[in-house]
Every structure is written in structure tokens, then in C-alpha cells.
Amino acid sequence: MPKEIQPIFDAIGGFFDSPVVQLFIQGLALFFIVLWFASAYWAFRDMQQRTDNPVMPYLAAAFIIVFTPAFFLVALLVYRIVRPHEKIGEVYERNLAEAAMLAEIESIPHCPTCDRRVHEEWIICPECRTRLKRVCPSCNKLVGTEWTICAWCGRDFERREALATIQSIPSKRPAQGEASVTEVPALPEPAQPSLRAASGDPRSEVRQPSQRPAATRPRVSTPAPDPLADG
After folding, report:
1. pLDDT at 9 over 50
2. What is the mean pLDDT of the chain?
3. Residue 68 backbone zone (phi > 0: left; psi -120 to 50: alpha; other: beta)
4. β-sheet bridge partners, residue 131
């Protein structure tokens, strides 16, 4: 080594051998070690907020620790690239926003037949002429066609319709001076039983008479006169 360069190396060696410089180097190394473990803990907590898998946070922390304090910055950069981009809370808020948007779309009245957007106060769809609502005869407010009772005045539609149906049935009333006669349906005549012979001959059919025969008087035999009794 040339003599001109030797004093430079001696000065550099003396600088690093100084107690102040040694203390600074030790503090810097401690800082990197603390930053290394802090990065592993940050990766653990960050992964807990981005996934429901209980194993993934430990794998993320172990990935940072394996790269040692000298290369943990490289591991931290790789982790930021491959980690999930949305947190669980952000995914939940996005799902709520989508659900609210769908509910808002469904709240817009549509025709059940042609699926056209209609106004809330329309009674009939102008496209397909489907009845959308009806007017309550008591309070003159719009009610749904499937409602059984008016929510505004409490009118019972089913009961009213049943009464209207009964009143619409025509009733026959007798004229003045005519007695009301109740028609009784005629009873069917009893069938006359018939008997047939076991041989199957139609001539052997015996019918039961419809009327009973008149009673006949018994014959009384009178004895003939004896000719010898006269003599």
C-alpha cells in the first residue's frame, strides 16, 4: 500500500473506532431491528383487516421476518403488491351501497306486466292497460289493487264486495193478490221390481201387479137332495 494512502485509511479507521461513532452505529442497527419487527407486526395487522382467514396474518408476518433486517424493505414492498386491495370494512360498505342502490331502483314503481316505469298516481298503465291502483269509494284516495282494506279510512273491500254481490242477485216476488207458491219437485215413481227365471227365458218374467186383486168369496158346496127321503 502506498505511503500516501495509508494516512487516509488510518483516519477512517480512527473515525469508526471513536466511541461516539460506535454508539451511533449501534443505535442505527437497533433502529433497523425495531423497524423490521414493526413492519412484520404491521403486515400482521393489515392482513387481519383484509381477510377472514386466521392463518394469512401469521404468514404475512413470517414473510417479513424471513427476509432479515437487511432485506425486510424488499419483503415489505412485495407484500404491498400481493395483499388484497380492499379491507373487510370497505367491502362491507361497498355491499351496503350496492344494496341501497338496488333498493332504490326497486322502490321506483314499475308496471307488473310490461315492466315500464309508471307514476305513483297512475291508475292504469298507458302501455299495456294493466290496472295499477283503484280509488277508494269512501275517501277517494288511491289504494293498491291487492289491498283488502283501505289504509286511509278503514273500508273493508271484501265485505263490501260480498254485500254488493248478494244484493245484485235478482229475487222473484209474487204480484199483488197472488199467493206465494213454493214449488215442490215431484218425486220419482218407484220402479217396479221384476223377477226373471234362472234359465234366462224372457217369457218366464213374473211382474208384480201394481194393484192388489179383489177378495173372492169362498165357494160353498150344497149337498144334492136324496130321492129316498121324499118317499
Report:
1. yes
2. 74
3. left
4. 124
Answer yes or no: are the C-beta atoms of 142 and 123 closer than 8 Å. Answer: yes
pLDDT digits (tens, 9 = 90+) for 129-178: 888 888 888 888 888 888 888 888 888 877 666 655 665 655 555 445 54
Residue 90 in grid coordinates: 370497505
User: Exposed (0-12), middle (13-18) or buried (19+): which is 150, by Cβ within 10 Å?
Assistant: middle
Alpha helices in 83-180 (DSSP H): 88-107, 157-167
Distance CA 49, CA 10 (A): 54
Specify the DSSP element, H or E, that contains 207.
strand 206-207
**Cα–Cα distance between 148 and 124 in angstroms, integer?**
19
Alpha helix locations (H) across the chain? 6-16, 19-48, 56-66, 68-82, 88-107, 157-167, 227-230
DSSP letters of 42-71? HHHHHHHTT-S-SSHHHHHHHHHHHTHHHH
The percent of the chain in helix, strand and coil, each rounded to the nearest 5, is 45, 5, 50
- Phi, psi for 204 (deg, rounded to 5): -85, 10
CA distance 66 to 214: 131
- Which residue is listed with cell 341501497? 100
Amino acid at 100: A
Of the candidate ranges 83-87, 91-95, 165-169, 181-185, the one whose mean pLDDT is the lowest = 181-185
Residues 60/43, Cβ–Cβ less than 8 Å = yes
Distances (CA, A) of 118 to 103, 105, 126, 128: 17, 13, 9, 11
